Amino acid sequence: MASLLDRLKVGFHWRGDGPVSFADVTEWWRDPVVLRDLPPALAALVPGAPTVVIGPASRGTLLGALVAAHLGAGLVELRKNDRVAEHGPEFLTHRLPRSYHEGGALLSFRRALVRPDDRVLCVDDWIETGAQALAAREMVASIGAAWLGTACVVSDLPAGSPVAGTLGLRWLLRADDL
Ligand SMILES: O=P(O)(O)OC[C@H]1O[C@H](OP(=O)(O)OP(=O)(O)O)[C@H](O)[C@@H]1O
Questions:
Q1: Which of 74, 76, 145, 174 has the most neighbouring CB atoms within 10 Å?
Q2: How far apart are CA 28 and CA 26, in angstroms?
Q3: Could you list the residue ranges forming a coiled coil in this record (predicted)?
Q4: Which ligand 1 atom is nearest residue 134's CA?
Q5: CA pair distance 5, 18, nearest whole angstrom
Q6: Hey, whose CA ends up nearest to atom 21 of ligand 1?
Q7: ipTM exceeding cut-off 0.95 for this assembly
Q8: b/e map 110-142, b = 16+ CB within 10 Å
Q9: Is the pLDDT of residue 40 over 90?
């Protein structure tokens, strides 16, 4: 695990030339050891036996697919601004306001992909406000499926935020470690 955490730190970069910093995690996927070791490390964070992993687009979907394959579970893409979702009653949607991440987003998945007897694990690379994962949790709850928790690589939530408890959030690193 120490070696994985070290590699995550080495492959991480803050970007931006002003007062705002942006997280650049693209180098993680370029490291075959991270790609191999990250899925089992994330899967081990949250107890339970997921039948479905839900991953917010795009990096949550990328990582979620790796975790789902490791667990032998299915993957549900939590799509972002998928136009068909606005035109099909079979899609469950949740709109994040324009103030969210400088533009908002329409989150969606096809309702039938999560069943009431599913046990759902949410996977993402980074949790900042928790808004996307909270939306996923609400959407999953509306179907009646069980929410096992959220596994992320980096938590950027303020210490003591109640959102962590609501999400059942577990992480490998805090943003302050980077
Ligand atoms: O906790 P939150 O405030 O909801 O923010 C975290 C989300 O934001 C980032 O995704 P983004 O929408 O930037 O898309 P990306 O995965 O394509 O980078 C990140 O990957 C999480 O999904």
A1: 76
A2: 5
A3: none
A4: 4
A5: 28
A6: 126
A7: yes
A8: bbebbeeebebbbbbbbbbebbbbbbbbebbee
A9: yes
pLDDT, one tens digit per residue, over 117-168 is 999 999 999 999 999 999 999 999 999 999 999 999 999 999 899 999 999 9
Tell me, what's the pLDDT at 14? 95
Residue 10 contacts by C-beta under 8 Å, 6 or more apart in sequence? none
Q: Work out whether the CA dihedral 177, 28, 106, 22 comes out positive or negative.
A: positive
Strand pairing class (105-110; 74-80): antiparallel
Distance from the CA of 64 to the center of ligand 1, in angstroms? 13
- Of ligand 1's listed atoms, the one at least distance from the Cα of 96 is 4
Minimal-distance CA residue to ligand 1 atom 19: 126
- In this structure, which amino acid lies at residue 160? G
CA of 111 to the centre of ligand 1 (A): 22
Tell me what pLDDT residue 11 has. Answer: 97
Q: Could you tell me if 63 and 41 are in contact, meaning their C-beta atoms sit under 8 angstroms apart?
A: no
pLDDT digits (tens, 9 = 90+) for 91-119: 999 999 888 787 889 999 999 999 999 99
- Does ligand 1 lie within 6 Å of residue 126's CB atom? yes
Query: What domains are there in the chain, each with its CATH number?
Result: 39-177 (3.40.50.2020)
Shortest-distance atom of ligand 1 to CA 128: 1
